[in-house]
């Protein structure tokens, strides 16, 4: 099948900027639209989802994802709402959940269904907390109200979230999907979040050698 590479630099600006660009929303699809755009528009990290040989009964989901959503997004910068609804209908059939076509869902629920239950992918993240390991496909930032953070960046939010939850990455992930703090119509924790174009995970890694903030040698204790 025909395939298109992810958009980069000037090409991304040219193809994705302007009216009638992105993924068209319809019937509470915003969580899925945003997730699909983030995962595929400008990166190929998860392109294995589009081409890996999966069981025949799951190829339809893979085909819709590749041919009706990702390729049009990368080729013209626009995906029709009907294409996303086609995927939602398939997910409803596969997930034993009748509300995928009309209700708003948590992005993590969508990712777990399509990555684990349908495509059978290995978990992308290995986390440790309190000596126990857990596998997952994405990480959602949980934080109490931070008075000193008015307009935070993603680096700050991830580090503080890991610290407050006593979490560490067991290994460097091949793909680190991060869900920003929740907000609703009544409340927003942050009015804006600055995207960190690079993420330093040195302090998030389990047993990773780090330098002492005083002398610069390898640290033996962690504050």
Automatic annotation (TrEMBL):
GO molecular function, one term: cysteine-type deubiquitinase activity
Domain of life: Eukaryota
Annotated Peptidase C19 ubiquitin carboxyl-terminal hydrolase domain residues: 22-201
Transmembrane segments: none
Keyword Cytoplasm set for record: yes
Swiss-Prot/TrEMBL keywords: Cytoplasm, Hydrolase, Microtubule
One of the Pfam families matching this protein, by short name: UCH
Compartment(s) of residence: Cytoplasm, Cytoskeleton, Spindle
GO terms under biological process: protein deubiquitination
Annotated protein name in UniProt: Ubiquitin carboxyl-terminal hydrolase CYLD
Cellular component terms per the entry's GO annotation: microtubule; spindle
